[in-house]
Design a protein that fits this description.
The chain is α/β, with parallel strands linked by helices. The protein folds into three domains: 5-107 and 291-311, NadA-like (Rossmann fold, 3-Layer(aba) Sandwich), CATH 3.40.50; 110-194, NadA-like (Rossmann fold); 202-275, 3-Layer(aba) Sandwich (Rossmann fold). It contains 17 helices and twelve strands. A four-stranded parallel β-sheet has the order 2-1-3-4, sandwiched between helices. The protein has a four-stranded parallel β-sheet with strand order 6-5-7-8. The structure holds 1,3-dihydroxyacetonephosphate (13P) and iron/sulfur cluster. The site of 1,3-dihydroxyacetonephosphate has 10 residues, from helix 4.
Length: 331
């Protein structure tokens, strides 16, 4: 069978392989904006994306804001500039939309640390427990949950469950330990973590703080507890952004994915933001390699070909939707 180049391209896109052969002469920003209008598409982007992608977004925010935006989107196509679990969440709560992810390989170490079959066995040992899952997990894990949460609303979600009830929290043990301290609730934790937030070096952060005695140290709750214990403020990406705007300090050491520094600098151009150091001095470990798989070229390509698309079975959508809707109702 002889296939034309277009047919081969089409098949590659259907299988989720991306066409990176975007002509260098193309004005990617102009073309993306043209395609967005032409196809009635919107771009949802997380703060960990490359700055040029953040600048193109119709909705830019943390995981909660993006889930809320995805629920309300009226456009025909959602292009999710984030990672797989975020695009999957958008598909679950707004299943009639075509949801595209510029690179299907944009996964998440935290989501991967919780395989559904093992998690099912784990929760079956505590049949009466409420299963609270951090949104950074697969649709299959969400389908096994009572309620989903993000780092922005986790305290509120946990406090909505009566004190007498048992809670399983998954998949992030670091966020789980932080929430145990914050809420005083004794939860059963799944042993998962994020490689990006676990890479921060306690000793190097302490040394850096000595070099910048006036700087405030702020951290995302996916970081390890010894790092969180020395933070002036702990919060979600939107919480960190609010803090740097409202706090009087003029410099901050920031322990979360480095992509957020773009929005911090934009909101407070007169302030200084220093990425927290990681253990391995030779590595850009505070960058999430999964988030950074998305590029302008892939964004253009995925809008042009409407591939790769996030496809989920109706059965999975039905099961995973309720725990997300419960979260969105609580806000
Ligand atoms: P938030 O933006 O909700 O704080 O989440 C951070 C994160 O790890 C996304 O992968
Ligand atoms: Fe997952 Fe961590 Fe990357 Fe967020 S930063 S997407 S939790 S690996």
């Amino acid at each position: 069978m002889n296939l034309t180049t277009d047919e081969i391209q089409e098949r590659l896109h259907k299988k989720g392989y991306l066409d990176l052969s975007v002509s260098k002469d193309i004005d990617l920003v102009a073309e993306i904006n043209r395609l967005k209008k032409e196809k009635n598409a919107v771009i949802l982007a997380h703060y960990y994306q490359e700055p040029e992608i953040q600048e193109l977004a119709d909705y830019l925010g943390d995981s909660l804001f993006l889930a809320q935006a995805a629920e309300k989107v009226a456009a025909d196509i959602i292009v999710f500039a984030g990672v797989h679990f975020m695009a999957e969440t958008a598909k679950i709560i707004n299943p009639n939309k075509k949801v595209l992810l510029p690179d299907l390989k944009a996964g998440c170490s935290l989501a991967d640390s919780c395989p559904p079959d093992e998690f099912e066995k784990f929760i079956s040992k505590h049949p009466d427990a409420h299963v609270v899952t951090y949104i950074n997990c697969s649709a299959e894990i969400k389908a096994l949950s009572t309620i989903v949460c993000t780092s922005s609303n986790a305290v509120r979600i946990i406090e909505s469950i009566p004190k007498s009830e048992t809670i399983i929290f998954a998949p992030d043990k670091n966020l789980g330990r932080y929430l145990i301290k914050e809420t005083g609730r004794d939860m059963i934790l799944w042993d998962g973590s994020c490689i990006v937030h676990e890479a921060f070096s306690f000793d190097r952060i302490v040394a850096l703080a000595k070099e910048h005695p006036k700087a405030k140290f702020i951290a995302h709750p996916e970081s390890e507890s010894q790092v969180l214990d020395i933070a002036h403020y702990v919060g979600s990406t939107s919480g960190l952004l609010k803090y740097i705007q409202e706090d009087k300090a003029t410099s901050f050491i920031v322990a979360t994915e480095a992509g957020i520094l773009h929005e911090m600098q934009k909101r407070c151009p007169e302030k200084t933001f220093i990425p927290a150091p990681v253990e391995d001095e030779t590595c850009a470990c505070s960058e999430c390699a999964f988030m950074k798989l998305n590029t302008l070229e892939k964004l253009y390509s995925c809008l042009e070909h409407e591939q790769p698309e996030v496809i989920l079975s109706q059965e999975l959508i039905d099961k995973a939707k309720l725990p997300i809707t419960r979260m969105l109702t609580l806000g």
